[in-house]
Design brief:
5-stranded antiparallel sheet, 3-stranded antiparallel sheet
Length: about 160
């Protein structure tokens, strides 16, 4: 396993729509393992494959009381409610912004064993899932910021991305 370098804006891989994974193979398994190893080192609660330079639909998230989980080809199948949250991103260092996210989401995906799973999430986990799935679609949280006055500069020690 290896800690992977992060891609930061304006890296073009962050703006591409990631390709669907067709099957689990050793390359995808290694990517998942490396992303799981990278996430705590970069202080993230989630990480999408484009953030480490791989334009494939793979996300890892740290689920409370469960640990890191890989989601392959994740898609949000249900959203409910709306709230304004302060968000940052490892790929947009030095900034935080206020955006709208769902109160809860249901995500359909495949796990690392290719089993179909559904994950229902609220709060920070729902926010994290929306954020990481946005990455798979070439979107960054700054695309959701309504105006520049909702974006603020932060010092490195204040920063923690999703």
């Amino acid at each position: 396993m290896a800690v992977l370098p992060l891609r930061v804006a304006p890296d073009p891989v962050l703006r591409q729509k990631a390709k669907r994974v067709r099957a689990i193979d050793p390359k995808i398994e290694k990517l998942i393992d490396d992303m799981i190893e990278t996430m705590p080192v970069v202080h993230g609660v989630g990480l999408a494959a484009p953030q480490v330079g791989a334009s494939v639909r793979v996300v890892v998230v740290d689920i409370p009381d469960q640990g890191p989980v890989a989601l392959i080809n994740p898609e949000i199948v249900k959203r409910s409610g709306e709230r304004e949250v302060s968000e940052a991103c490892l790929s947009v260092p030095g900034y935080r912004g206020w955006i709208k996210r769902s109160n809860s989401v249901t995500v359909k995906a495949r796990d690392r064993h290719w089993k179909e799973i559904r994950l229902k999430a609220t709060g920070l986990l729902a926010q994290c899932l929306e954020h990481e799935i946005d990455h798979l679609n070439g979107l960054l949280y700054v695309d959701h910021v309504e105006s520049q006055d909702k974006l603020e500069r932060v010092e490195a020690e204040e920063e923690q991305g999703l």
